[in-house]
Every structure is written in C-alpha cells, then in structure tokens.
Amino acid sequence: MAVWGGASESDLKAAGAEALPDGPSGVRLRGWHIESSRRPILNSLALQEWEEKLGTSHLPEMVFGESSLYLLHEDSGLKLHFNAFDALKGWKREPLPPVEVPAAAKWKFRSKPFQQVILDYDYTFTTPYCGSEAIEPNPEKAISEDGCCSLCWEDCDERIDLAALSSKEPILFYDEVVLYEDELADNGVSLLTVKVRVMPSCWFLLLRFWLRVDGVLMRLRDTRVYCAFVSDHKAIPVILRESCWREATIQSLSAKGFPSDSASYGDPNLISQRLPVIAHKTQRLKVSRCPEKSPFHRAA
Predict the structure, then answer these.
(1) 135, 137, 156, 215: which sits with the fewest CB atoms below 10 Å from its CB?
(2) Which helix (H) or strand (E) holds 135?
(3) What is the pTM of this model?
(4) Element counts in the chain: helices (H) and strands (E)
(5) 180-233 residue pLDDT tens
(6) Residue 224 forms beta bridges with which residues?
(7) Which of 51-65, 124-138, 158-172 has the lowest mean pLDDT?
(8) How far apart are CA 237 and CA 151, in angstroms?
(9) Among 296, 157, 150, which Cα is nearest to 240's?
(10) DSSP of 48-83, one letter per residue?
C-alpha cells in the first residue's frame, strides 16, 4: 500500500507538502499533484472490451486496468501518467516474435482448451512503453492557454542526478503500482510495475517491465523519470527520462559461469547487472508551441 515513507506531519510541513485528502493516495508539493491508484484486476467483461479495443484475443492473466500513477504540474498543465492500457497498446505495436520454448505448447490451449491455435503472438507481453504524457485542457494553464502546443521527448546528454536520490532526505510519499502480470503458465513471470518516490527536492519514478521465461530468457526494460523542484513553480519543469533495456538467454549466462536454475533469478534487482545492455538513451521532455498564424493568413 502507499506509504508516506515514515514522514511525519512536521516533515511534510517543512517541505511545504500536504497529503491528499481522504480517498486518493498521494501528495501535493512544489506545484505538483502526485497521485497513485490501485484497483482490483479487470473482470471478464472489462477484459473482453479491452480485447476488442486492442484487437487481440490474448491479454495477461492479471490486468489492473484501473490502477495508475499520474503526476500533474498544476501551473503548466503538464501531466505524466502510467497505465496498463497504453502499455498493452505498445505491446501490440512492437512486432516481437514468440519466445521459442518447449513449455509454450501448453499455452496454445490456454484461451481455447478444446481447439489448438497457432502461437503467433508475443505471449510475454513485452512492451516498449515508457509512460504517457499530455497537457491538461484548462485555459488557466500557462502552456495551454492558447490551446496549441505539443509534447515530445528529445535525446539529450544530461543524466539523472543519482547522488540526489541517495541523499538522506525524508521520503514524503512512496507507492508501487502493478499494471499487469502473467505467470506464463507457471513457467516464469511477465510483470509491469511503476514505483514513485517523492522527496523535498525532487520526485523520481521507475517503470519496470520484468520478464523471466524459465530456462530460456530474461528481459528487463527500465524507465527512470526524474524532476528536480525549482523555486519558480510556474516555470515549465525540466523532466529527464532514462530508458535502459537489458536482455540475456539463460544459456549465455550459464556460459559466463552464472547459475542456470530459475530459482537464482527471482529478483530483478539482484541480477540486473548480469544482463547486458541492448539499448540505452536519455531524453528530456520538450514543450513546443504551434507557430502563430500570420496576420495575412485567411481561409481559402
């Protein structure tokens, strides 16, 4: 469940923060409204609706479709949010072939037990999803008052300040939200989670997709997002995003002298450094305004 990091009322007050009123879990601090929501898994009817929208007949065993995390910068209207539906849209768009594994024969019957189907989809539910961004439609917001601006992530050379994250600051708010999970017919795990940590000087989150196909493959896709607070709450915040994808076969790890049994790979935090990096980039969120129309412009 969400916790306030052991932070006392005095810690919150000293940081200029306040917990959200009864109901949502979260905190308001330095112009940011940060809120997490954890709900039960979708029922069969809701899953069917999702399948129709996504154009698939296969979804993870446990989809926490109404669970989410969002961070809203109230003065500018910038909003970052993390949810299962957008993540599964990313899964559908990424053309990954099924992982070849003998146990996969069992999964051919999972959806239709009396009819064999060809396993022609990525049953690991691997997603390239790094989060969603939007501008809250509000005429009073600083960057949306003209109703014409866009958000995009641009590659940059800046790096997330890890030293700031290791400081002894009190944690004012922390939560972990599971977005979806599948146990791959008891042959591994496919798990997407997002964690957030709010401190007096910054907020930081980790979106993690973790895959373990027993005896075959491990895949870790981490997205870290960081924002340092500034004195001017109305200024557009600087938000950095670092994505790191790691992957290795059990065979390749065994060849390097690492264990080959699945029991040794239950915690991605402990084995992440063993997995080679296959992709890495750091980006900065950019706000672009639409060019003003020429005074000589007129409709045809």
Answers:
(1) 137
(2) strand 132-135
(3) 0.88
(4) 7, 14
(5) 999 988 889 999 999 999 999 999 999 999 999 988 999 999 999 999 998 887
(6) 206, 242
(7) 158-172
(8) 13
(9) 157
(10) HHHHHHHT-S---SEE-TT-EEEEEETTT-EEEEEE
Please report, for the chain, the start and end positions of each structural domain, with discontinuous segments joined by +: 9-289
The owner of tokens 């009190």 is 170
Rounded Cα–Cα distance for residues 36 and 46 (Å): 21
Both tokens assigned to 13: 């007050």
Instruction: Find the helix or strand (DSSP H, E) in which 163 lies.
Output: helix 162-165
Amino acid identity, residue 57?
A: S
Joined tokens for residue 50: 């999702």
Question: What does each C-alpha distance from 114 to 39, 101, 120, 144, 145 come to in angstroms?
Answer: 33, 22, 18, 54, 57
Per-residue burial over 120-151, b if 16 or more Cβ lie within 10 Å, else e, is ebbbbbbbbbbbbbebbeeeebbbbeeeeeeb
Alpha-carbon distance of 175 to 25, in angstroms, equals: 9
Per-residue buried b or exposed e for 187-214, using 16+ beta carbons within 10 Å of the residue's own CB:
bbbbbbbbebbbbbebbbbbbbbbbbbb
